[in-house]
Amino acid sequence: MTIAFVKYHGLGNDFILIDNRQSSEPCLTPEQAVIWCDRHFGIGADGVIFALPGQPVPGEPDSDYTMRIFNSDGSEPEMCGNGIRCMARFVADLEEEAGLIAEKAEGRAYRIQTLAGVIVPKLEAGGKVTVDMGLPRLLAAEIPTTLASPDEKVINQPLQAAGKSWDVTCVSMGNPHCITFVEDVATIPLETIGTQFEHHPAFPQRINTEFIQVIRSDYLKMRVWERGAGITLACGTGACASLVAGVLTGRCDRRATVELPGGCLEIEWSGDRIYMTGDAQRVFEGVMSL
Question: Is residue 99 domain-shared with residue 222, that is, in the same domain?
Fold first, then answer.
């Protein structure tokens, strides 16, 4: 049996996209996703994304599609910011190929159901996608973390990890993030300390960790260790969480460019909601045997 796929990336955060609209469950197991993501023996990716049928949403319009994702280690995150931009481009390409939309899909928005709720990406010119990422969640119980009482925020709290104390701020964008500000992100030995943050006992569901260098109040530089994927070139939810942490700690504006190893994202905290704009690029397509 073979399954067709298309490879996309968002700032180098790369994904295998599968048209899974014929079923409400992913067509691969987590174990199979691990094999597909292997960069030596498989296709190579940070995760596999399944485009499933939309679902009813109580009290709201139905979703257009459902997104499920398995990380390269087989775990399933609630959401992925770069991944949902890639999925928006993917489903637009599917609709275009089926003759359902005009050649230019700019301005088209989708309601995509995720494990973090409904997320709305909008296609822009030049391959960019703007995503309404919703409201940041700040209470310890919402992260979740034991660094504070459940109904308190975690802002500049000390965390002992990798042999030292770090001041961290925690934010959930539907998935958990721990942000710490440093003088120079290039000096952080991410490959050795990232896993110590991810598996720290203060985070019962593990954690994504962002190390942020403030270049200016409207420009941040970021490196990330992603839960279930390790070092990646970009993390959309992490960039959103980092801007929120920067605002909460008085380090940055409510609109800023976040530079990641794979490129830049534009992040804005407007009113209560977070908006993210960045590229989503098609790389290649193929078929893979099970």
Answer: no
- The answer to whether the annotation marks 20 as part of a ligand binding site is no
- Whether residues 130 and 144 share a domain: the answer is no
Amino acid at 65: Y
Catalytic site includes residue 178: no
259 among annotated binding-site residues: no
Say how many domains are in the chain: 2
Residue 80 falls in the annotated catalytic set: yes
**Burial profile 235-264: b = 16 or more Cβ within 10 angstroms, e = fewer:** bbbbbbbbbbbbbbbebbebebbbbbbbbb
Catalytic residue selected from 80, 170, 252, 264: 80
Tell me if 142 is assigned to a ligand binding site. no
Q: Reduce the DSSP state of residue 273 to 3 states and report it.
A: strand
pLDDT, tens digit, 9 for 90 and up, residues 7-40 = 999 999 999 999 999 999 999 999 999 999 999 9
pTM of this prediction? 0.93
Structural domain boundaries enclosing 219: 140-271
Instruction: From the candidates 86, 170, 178, 235, give the one annotated as an active-site residue.
Output: 235
> Is residue 156 annotated as involved in ligand binding?
no
CATH number at residue 55: 3.10.310.10
Give the C-alpha separation, 37 to 66, whole Å: 21
